């Protein structure tokens, strides 16, 4: 059974992105399967994993949510990418 870890705080500048990136990378190094979702409009978590232009990604959290809401088939719509031990 998987576990969910959420990193949240209403205040900015408290280290949410760095905490999420460090947790994700550390767990991936231990062989855990990790999914990091970047719901921030600034895409800081995505950039921290080496994606320099997140707005140019063909599939984003926004497009996936739109597909679900519109009941659009999105099988194979999310290309997989590796960043070290992380799957992006």
Give a description of the structure:
The protein has one domain. The longest helix has 14 residues. The chain has 88 residues and is mainly α. The relative contact order is 0.14. It is 32% helix and 5% strand.
Summary tags:
88 residues, globular, two-stranded antiparallel ribbon
Write the layout of secondary structure elements.
Layout: H1 16-29, H2 44-48, H3 61-69, E1 82-83, E2 86-87
Antiparallel strand pairs: 1-2
The biggest beta sheet reads:
2 strands, antiparallel
Give the strand order, joined by hyphens, for the main sheet.
Answer: 1-2
Radius of gyration: 14 Å
- The N- and C-terminal alpha carbons lie at a distance of 21 Å
What is the total tally of β strands? 2
The portion of residues forming beta strands comes to: under 5%
The string of secondary-structure elements, in order, is HHHEE
Helix/strand/pairing category: mainly alpha
Q: What's the pLDDT, averaged over the residues?
A: 84
Ranges where pLDDT stays below 50 over 5 or more residues in a row are none
Morphology = globular
Helix content: 25-40%
Number of helices, counting only DSSP H or I runs of 4 residues or more: 3
Domain tally: 1
